[in-house]
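Dear colleague,

Thank you for sharing your sequence with our group. We've completed the structure prediction you requested, and as agreed, I am returning the results in plain text so they can be pasted directly into your records. Please verify that the sequence below matches your submission; if there's any discrepancy, let me know and we will rerun it promptly.
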Amino acid sequence: MKRKRLLNGAALVLGLLGVYFKLNWWAGANALLLSGFGALLGSVLGFTARANAEAGTSYVLNYVMVATLTLGILTVVFRLMHWSGDGLLVWASDGLLLVLVIMLIFSKNRVVSHQFVTVLAIFFTLVIALLSFVPGHQPAPRTQPERAAQQEEAWLELD
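Please find the predicted structure tokens below.
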């Protein structure tokens, strides 16, 4: 019990510190992000499946939930680090998330553990923190009208 809380707390703190460092372009941001998401992945793989089984979650639903969280964490890490294969992971995690949603809609046994909800909340906290601090899309500078005006002036000068 104490290890779960410690690992979840470390995932949250290291992940948020990594987001802050990444926003400020400080050294060590990638190490902090990898440590935070690594701790979160360790928490998912080490404790969540067992906690869901103890709570009474069905076998198939339990492992689809854990696989979805695991793939989601890996997808975010691959996207943050700009590693190849991130596009494939996005498709795979979206597909698995769709399967999970369909299973949850039609499942009669929707019991999940406190550990699963905690890990899910930490994961979405880190993802939302990353998304909320990313600057918005800046429109491309308009260089063509200026270039056209310069060309007209040059043409006029030649006459």
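Summary note from our side: DSSP finds six helices and no strands in the chain.

Kind regards,
the structure core
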